[in-house]
Each structure stands twice: as structure tokens, then as C-alpha cells.
Design brief:
By secondary structure, this protein is α+β, with helices and mostly antiparallel strands. Helices cover 39% and strands 20% of the residues. It has a four-stranded antiparallel beta sheet, sandwiched between helices. The protein is globular, with a radius of gyration of 14 Å. The protein starts with a strand and ends in a 9-residue tail after the last helix. 34% of the residues are buried. Bound molecules: adenosine-5'-triphosphate (ATP) and magnesium ion. The site of adenosine-5'-triphosphate (ATP) has 10 residues, from strand 4. The site of adenosine-5'-triphosphate has 10 residues, from strand 4.
């Protein structure tokens, strides 16, 4: 099934000039970029993006990190895009991530793990709507 998913290239990766390397891996996987912008979250915007985690002990630290510098937000489109991009990212903790995945290659720690990807088509729709308006997204 053709799907869209949301990718964030997190502040740790943008800060280390890894935007091109992440996008290259995404395109090599055959996923299509259909929207792309840079964002520097306020704390409230970062908290809103990760609201699903608001009860977790790492929530405040995560929101502080996510507004510590600019990030790249990207809508990806392709067959089974949600699961394919999650596989390309690798496990949340880079220590558990498979060889060749984005997090294995680039992540610095469990929190500074370089990339985000939606975990379902439903959360993708919500996250895309949080960051992009309809006219920002092209069809690929
Ligand atoms: P993401 O939603 O960013 O794609 P994920 O779906 O693999 O990551 P989640 O459980 O949704 O993992 O956690 C969201 C983010 O919160 C993680 O990517 C990581 O940056 C951070 N995080 C998760 N667990 C912890 C933890 N135990 N300590 C610190 N930070 C954490
Ligand atoms: Mg998640």
C-alpha cells in the first residue's frame, strides 16, 4: 500500500552536517521526498510533537533536546513507507540497532538518536499535519 510517513533529522544530526547523508540513504532505499523544511522548535512545539510521551520520565529532557537546534522535517512517500523507513532507521537505542541502519551509523545515544520516523499510518497523518500544510506536500 502506498503510504506517507514523517521523518525528522534531529538536531544532533543537523549539527554534525549529516542531512545529506540521511537523505541519500532514504532515496537509496527508494522512498520519495515529497515535502522538506527546516524547523527550530520552541519548547512548547517540541512538547506538542512528542505529546504521546508526556508521562514518560525522559519527556522533559527529550523536548529540551528537540528544541536545542534546527531540525529537518521531511514527508516521505512510497509503498509501505512507514515500516520501510522504520527499518532503515533501526532500533531506538543505537546499541541495539542493526548494522547499516541510520541509528547504527549516526546516533550518539538513546536520546540523541539522529532520526525520527512515524510508528503507524495514523501517527504519520497526525505528525505531518502538525508540521506541514496541504499545499507544502507534492505527490510522487
Ligand atoms: P522516534 O519517535 O523519535 O522515531 P522511536 O519511535 O524509536 O523514536 P520512542 O519510544 O517513540 O522511540 O521515543 C521517542 C524518542 O525519545 C526516541 O527516539 C529517543 O530520542 C527518546 N527516548 C526514548 N526512550 C528514551 C529513554 N529511555 N531515555 C532517553 N530518551 C529516550
Ligand atoms: Mg516514536
Amino acid at each position: 500500500m502506498r503510504q506517507r510517513t514523517l521523518c525528522l533529522i534531529k538536531p544532533d544530526a543537523v549539527n554534525r552536517n549529516l542531512v545529506g547523508a540521511v537523505l541519500q540513504a532514504i532515496e537509496a532505499e527508494g522512498l520519495h521526498v515529497c515535502a522538506l523544511r527546516m524547523i527550530h522548535f520552541t519548547k512548547a512545539q517540541a512538547e506538542g510533537f512528542y505529546a504521546v510521551h508526556r508521562e514518560r520520565p525522559f519527556f522533559d529532557s527529550l523536548a529540551t533536546y528537540m528544541c536545542s537546534g534546527p531540525l529537518v522535517a521531511c514527508v516521505l512517500e512510497g509503498e509501505n513507507a512507514v515500516a520501510r523507513y522504520r527499518t532503515l532507521m533501526g532500533a531506538t537505542n543505537p546499541a541495539d540497532a542493526a548494522e547499516g541502519t541510520l541509528r547504527k551509523r549516526f546516533a550518539q545515544s538513546l536520546e540523541h538518536n539522529s532520526v525520527h520516523g512515524s510508528d503507524s499510518p495514523e501517527s504519520a497523518a497526525g505528525e505531518i499535519a502538525y508540521l506541514f500544510s496541504t499545499c507544502d506536500i507534492v505527490s510522487r
